Amino acid sequence: xxxxxxxxxxxxxxxxxxxxxxxxxxxxxxxxxxxxxxxxxxxxxxxxxxxxxxxxxxxxxxxxxxxxxxxxxxxxxxxxxxxxxxxxxxxxxxxxxxxxxxxxxxxxxxxxxxxxxxxxxxxxxxxxxxxxxxxxxxxxxxxxxxxxxxxxxxxxxxxxxxxxxxxxxxxxxxxxxxxxxxxxxxxxxxxxxxxxxxxxxxxxxxxxxxxxxxxxxxxxxxxxxxxxxxxxxxxxxxxxxxxxxxxxxxxxxxxxxxxxxxxxxxxxxxxxxxxxxxxxxxxxxxxxxxxxxxxxxxxxxxxxxxxx
Length: 308
Description:
By secondary structure, the chain is α/β, with parallel strands linked by helices. The chain has helices spanning 18-31, 48-52, 61-65, 91-96, 102-112, 126-134, 146-161, 182-189, 201-209, 213-216, 221-234, 271-282, 294-306, and strands at residues 6-10, 36-40, 75-79, 82-85, 115-119, 137-142, 166-174, 193-198, 253-255. Strand 3 (75-79) and strand 4 (82-85) form a beta hairpin. Helix 1 (18-31) packs across helix 11 and helix 7 packs parallel to helix 13 (294-306). The relative contact order is 0.20.
């Protein structure tokens, strides 16, 4: 197993697939028998709950950071080997949460699980920068779109300032016949290219279903790419799961007291949340539906470098 067990999944721009990447890498490793915790550390704009069909009224990370609950109270079993720690969506909860307690949360989860994945908020704020320094490594997620690439440069710089280490770049919404060199994007950012995730219509469908893509469409191109990425991170071999091995698509139990309810009744409640998540994090398309031209990508990175 890799010596790095806590990963922050970060991006400088919303709409690049950060939460989908977090959930699917974690689920793929859980399917391989690893004990995994995924944590929504986007304290201001949380959306992990909608991706995995958790009841948004349950105890969350906000309650833990406010000193009103223990981490176990906000830890929910999603399927065999995988749990989630969601953040709240209310402004009052956000105001009462203290990000400084996040270090203790990560330490507890590190001791209890093989892998911990922190879904970090986009942008620049104290709660965004803090997880970058708590993780063993940071995965930078970006589409090939120039604005996303430019903001990736800023995320890399923030990681360095937080005392963290960047593992590499994950490029999402790629196309097999594109003229863009994803290796060149990573090279210009001066970090390794860890993997590319192809455009896949099943990604949007899986968000509405509240089911990880590697479960919803395990043989799809994006699911295969996520399993490959997970295998590379862990240094293991992963194969497509059989239907018997796939995590339950409907049940999410609280650990240890089963306080979270199954999402069958919460699916409609989460519909608006999932719609926002699709548009704001994972499945939003470029205005014209096309990838940026290579020259635009290079100029975006050059501009980011000149600004610093």
